[in-house]
Design goal:
1016 residues
């Protein structure tokens, strides 16, 4: 190629890329003479032989651009400050020709259609440009669809007919993947420099113009979809999203890594824009994959940007990676905190740098966030860490709980309470500190610090709902956060001096009224009403909560699960106002505690239709796309929604909340209608579960044992223990009383197998069918398909799993034995392998399996109380298949053995449950009860030593339990009192009996923490 050839190639590409279509002289000759468009195209046609088609495509492209420019404003020439130069946000007639220009453009379009060009991609790009301008978006999409690889830039660079085949056969050019691919796009920008520099290699080789054509075509794709489907933005957004890798490539070259004390504002604004779009779509974790990719890209062009770290903390948590969110939060706290301390130290007048929190006047400092952003981020992080800690069992999570306390302490250092917004932010800090104190009571398990922690939590919850700094008028108009009302209701319902069931019901009702689409608020209110023995009201409330999101759930099930990682599932949806009375039945709160507000009547709630899976979307998140005079979008930072202290639930969170509520409905049905009514209710719940086709579940704490009647009465012993507000805390160990402390001893657990039952109790194939038929012989209009499913699954479960113990026993030693005492000790268990990193999806799958296993176990308890022992066994087997490491499986197995009169086998089963989870409340209480029963049975025929050992074992087990996470379980105190009585410690026996009576005075049908959780 001659010098002139290369020169005019570069000049044409420069003119095209710069987009100065109306420029009088867009190019220069080799001598420096300015050239108009016509002369540039003539000289290109003269010197660049074999590329006449390129010149024609360029000519028609410039002609169309001029036609469009006559009907629009030029942002390079018009003053953006003028009213008439503002550009509308609505698509309207953008890039479409007026009627008087269509005939002229149609002639050029026909000429391009008849053009025989070897540069197939460039021709289709130009044809698509014309088709849309002529008002034919369908044909525009057809032309773009003719491009085989839209994002392979090198393939779009014009070549002659001879080199085209070679270039396509040996394609080693720059490749930019589509938005949905996982290939690297870091090299898509190559070595981009200023596109207006004619010496730039990307200008000379055509890469920059190829990228320009590709971006234009992506925009035309999205605009065409907007025209063809104005009511469904999914496809258009998906098309626009494919350009993100190209935009990142441009950002890689148009910006540079900041120097010390500088910020990369372009990248931060782009991040804000992407996060704003994600928030407007509902801020759901299922669709956060693309914005997480943007954030990781932004970290390569920023240095510990507080803005990027803030977004990463929140979005990692919403997406389910709380561990990574925690690490990001700690980095944010360290970076911003140190920068602020340094700024304070270097300021001559420190007070001048401590600016008003709400006004955010310290945002001019580039190294740290404003006080408002600092407080909001740390409060969010503290709540996140509290939820994480509360979801872990025993003492696990203590580290995270303490880190949450540090975050709250740091947040208060820059809290400035000025104005209404300052009061609300202070209330959020108070709520976070109340939640933290409550979680610390769960994690510390310390009888000495528990009273103070609970009292402090209750005080902060009250402050969060009714700030003391407000005067009378301001206090009357202050609207507390629904989450604050929820936690205050929990505090009133929790055992302690502040226990007040009526107040708990009142505040739970206020929470429902404030956010009627939050399932857990309805669930809590139903539990509290049941604890107050208001059965009809409780049933109505639970039915209302179960109705939330049902229509949308059915629609999701029909459409199938959607891929949460594609932008198609992350579209902006219009927000509409719906009347909640259409969704929820009218329930009078005055029926509960005299609060004469109607829940669900004339309550208008602003709901984002993209979140119709069961949760209210605050209007600050869903309904806000700030515009300036309805013409321009506000700056990217203004598109961000206010930070919420807890993220909106994912679909799997909603599945868990709905299933837990339905479990409570089953328990309530058994209380009201007996086990016969509960049997049919469980069929309905199983039918509902079978209809769900959502992905696997999120992460929440596992629910404690649902069966809970150590005394065999059929009532749940793990329910909400409550007592009079004047009651004292649990009795502590007397310092002057000598008490023998029984240390935990290593026990080789070898529970008996179901195969070792007596011959007359073994279940054969024929008897299995007989028992199942009798179990599900109820003729009802609902649940027939589920009855057949249960029969089939239980039958297959027995054929597939001969015993429950075999599968788990193979992992810890042989569990099969002829009697309760092994002839020789089994081999020691193998060393536990180091933990392997599991994906979030695996964790979600295990959690969902545990939920369904719990459902099988609850149905097993109902079967057992109905006397259908073999159906109970089948349900236990199904639960074991779902979740083999669930200690509640072994608790139910122990109850099954008790129903058969095999106490020794039951003891082995409870020991196995404690081997899996040493802090399991249900297994501990049941095991202690059996120790005491065995002592009483053998008192006359066994030696005093053996009998005393059983009592000591029971006392030691329950003493440890009541000091820890079983301190609020009345059965634990009752059997501990019985053990103390058998030991002759009458004073301790009386104290424990008194406390057990107080705990059981106003208990609920289920434990609140297990059903709805202690942290929201």
């Amino acid at each position: 190629m001659s010098t002139k050839d290369r020169h005019y190639w570069a000049q044409l590409r420069l003119a095209l890329t710069s987009g100065q279509w109306s420029s009088q002289y867009p190019a220069k000759a080799p001598t420096g003479t300015a050239l108009p468009w016509s002369e540039l195209l003539r000289k290109f046609d003269k010197h660049c032989k074999g590329f006449q088609d390129v010149a024609q495509i360029a000519s028609h492209t410039q002609a169309l651009a001029l036609l469009l420019a006559d009907n629009s404003q030029d942002e390079d020439q018009n003053d953006p400050g003028e009213r008439g130069s503002e550009y509308p946000v609505e698509l309207g007639s953008e890039s479409m020709l007026p009627e008087e220009r269509i005939k002229e453009a149609q002639t050029s379009y026909d000429a391009l259609m008849s053009l025989q060009s070897s540069n197939y991609d460039s021709l289709n790009f130009a044809l698509a440009y014309y088709a849309y301008a002529l008002g034919n978006p369908t044909r525009c999409l057809l032309h773009i669809g003719n491009v085989p690889d839209l994002f392979s830039l090198r393939k779009h660079i014009p070549t002659d007919s001879i080199s085209t085949t070679t270039a396509q056969t040996h394609h080693l050019g720059l490749h930019v993947p589509s938005f949905s691919t996982s290939h690297s796009f870091s090299s898509a920008g190559g070595s981009f420099v200023n596109l207006t520099d004619s010496c730039a290699p990307e200008i000379r080789d055509g890469t920059s113009w190829a990228m320009t054509e590709t971006l234009r075509s992506v925009c035309l794709q999205g605009m065409s979809h907007e025209k063809l489907a104005p009511s469904d933005p999914h496809v258009a957004l998906n098309a626009y999203g494919t350009a993100l890798p190209l935009l990142e490539s441009v950002g890689n070259t148009c910006t540079s890594f900041p120097r010390a004390g500088e910020r990369n504002l372009r990248v931060e604004d782009f991040v804000d824009l992407c996060v704003g779009i994600w928030e407007a779509d509902g801020a759901r974790g299922e669709g956060a994959g693309w914005v997480i990719d943007i954030l990781w890209w932004a970290t390569r062009l920023t240095f510990n940007s507080p803005k990027v770290l803030r977004h990463m903390t929140r979005i990692f948590h919403v997406a389910g990676d709380t561990s990574l969110a925690r690490r990001t939060l700690l980095l944010y706290s360290q970076v911003v905190g140190k920068a602020y301390e340094t700024k304070q130290a270097n300021t001559a007048t420190p007070s001048s740098s401590t600016r008003d929190l709400i006004d955010g006047n310290d945002v001019d400092n580039t190294d740290f966030d404003s006080g408002k952003e600092w407080v909001e981020t740390l409060v969010y992080g503290a709540r996140m860490l509290c939820r994480w800690a509360a979801a872990q069992t025993g003492l696990e999570g203590m580290k995270e709980a303490r880190e949450a306390g540090v975050c709250i302490e740091k947040a208060r250092t820059r809290l400035r309470i000025v104005g209404t917004d300052g009061v609300r932010l202070a209330a959020r800090v108070d709520l976070a500190e109340g939640v933290w104190n409550f979680v610390m009571t769960l994690k510390e398990q310390d009888t000495h610090t528990r009273p103070g922690r609970l009292a402090a939590a209750h005080k902060f919850f009250i402050q969060a709902c009714s700030p003391t700094i407000l005067d009378g008028q301001e206090a009357s108009t202050f609207t507390p956060d629904p989450a604050a009302l929820y936690h205050l209701a929990l505090s009133f319902a929790h055992p302690g001096p502040d226990h007040d069931l009526e107040q708990a019901i009142l505040h739970a009702g206020r929470a429902v009224e404030a956010d009627p689409r939050e399932i857990r608020y309805w669930h809590l209110l139903g539990l509290l009403l049941a604890a107050a023995e208001k059965w009809t009201e409780a049933r109505e409330i639970l039915e209302s909560g179960a109705a939330i999101g049902e229509d949308e759930t059915v629609k999701d099930a029909e459409n199938g699960a959607q891929d949460g990682e594609t932008l198609e599932s992350n579209s902006l949806k219009a927000t509409s106002r719906i009347n909640e009375s259409e969704k929820f039945p009218e329930v009078q709160e005055k029926d509960f505690v005299g609060f004469a507000t109607t829940i669900g009547t004339n309550t208008s709630v602003e709901v984002d239709e993209s979140l119709t899976d069961g949760r209210t979307v605050p209007s600050t998140i869903s309904s806000r796309i700030p515009l300036i005079d309805d013409m321009r979008i506000s700056p990217a930072a203004a598109l961000l929604a206010p930070v919420q202290d807890h993220p909106p639930p994912s679909k799997e969170n909603l599945f868990e909340y709905a299933l837990q509520l339905r479990m409570t409905q089953g328990v309530l049905t058994e209380v009201i209608d007996g086990a016969e009514g509960a049997e049919q209710k469980w069929l309905e719940v199983f039918s509902w579960v079978a209809a769900q086709r959502t992905p696997t579940a999120g992460q929440n704490a596992a629910r404690p044992s649902e069966d809970g009647d150590p005394a065999g009465t059929g009532a749940s012993f793990a329910s909400v223990p409550t007592y009079d507000g004047s009651a004292l805390y649990p009795p502590t160990q007397e310092s002057n009383e000598k008490q023998e402390t029984i240390e935990p001893i290593p026990i080789t657990v070898t529970p008996a197998s179901l195969n070792n039952e007596t011959p007359q109790r073994q279940i054969g194939k024929s008897s299995s069918t007989k028992h199942l038929s009798s179990s599900f012989d109820r003729d009802t209009s609902k649940g027939k398909k589920v009855q057949q499913m249960l029969k089939h699954r239980v039958h297959q479960g027995r054929a597939r799993v001969s015993t429950i113990s075999r599968k788990i026993g193979n992992k810890t030693g042989s569990l099969k034995k002829a009697n309760s005492t092994p002839a020789s000790p089994p081999p020691p268990p193998l060393p536990v392998p180091p933990p392997t990193r599991t994906t979030n999806r695996n964790v979600q799958t295990k959690h969902r399996e545990r939920l369904i296993a719990d459902l099988w176990l609850m149905s097993a308890a109902t079967f057992r109380r109905l006397g259908k022992i073999e159906q109970a066994k089948g349900a236990i087997q199904e639960a074991e298949v779902k979740d083999e490491g669930n200690p509640r499986v072994w608790v139910q197995l122990g109850l099954y053995y008790i129903a058969h009169g095999q106490q020794e086998h039951a003891i082995d089963a409870y020991q196995k449950a404690l081997f899996i989870n040493p802090d399991d409340v249900s297994a501990s209480v049941h095991l202690a009860r059996l120790f005491l029963a065995r002592h009483e049975a053998q008192a006359d025929i066994s030696s005093e030593t053996n009998s005393s050992n059983d009592v000591d074992l029971a006392a030691g087990l329950l003493s440890h339990l009541t000091r820890g996470n079983g301190w609020h379980v009345p059965e634990a105190w009752y059997y501990l009192a019985k053990a103390y009585g058998l030991q002759g410690r009458k004073k301790r026996e009386r104290e424990c009996l008194d406390f057990a009576l107080l705990l059981s005075a106003s208990r609920g049908i289920r434990e609140i923490g297990a059903a709805v959780g202690w942290c929201i």
